[in-house]
Amino acid sequence: xxxxxxxxxxxxxxxxxxxxxxxxxxxxxxxxxxxxxxxxxxxxxxxxxxxxxxxxxxxxxxxxxxxxxxxxxxxxxxxxxxxxxxxxxxxxxxxxxxxxxxxxxxxxxxxxxxxxxxxxxxxxxxxxxxxxxxxxxxxxxxxxxxx
Length: 147
Ligand code: ZN
Hints:
Layout: H1 2-17, E1 30-36, E2 41-50, E3 53-62, H2 65-78, H3 83-97, H4 123-137
Antiparallel strand pairs: 1-2, 2-3
């Protein structure tokens, strides 16, 4: 178990140091800002949504290691997913970081944030980029299932 924890920790530190998709997305058609005043994390999420799918996404911002790594892994995990899939993955990710997930095997790399549930104040850090993403998605005129 502690080996697994080390691996998770390493992945988070790696994404913090070298965040993926950390740029402005030039052809984005959606974007939203997120701010977590508790920790001072700021994030801006860019999306290109076409045909009900997140074709591309990126982020910019500054904040703690958890918020940055979470945004980075999120952008890697959601590229090419349908809006419905994104909603469902977000719900499961939120359960994971709140310690309510029953199983998370199919969440892929997102599982590295499972330890966050032991630090309730960091849950907002881990979900900040996701809330911004959701705000950007809800900009849509297409039918988006929120529940
Ligand atoms: Zn934070």
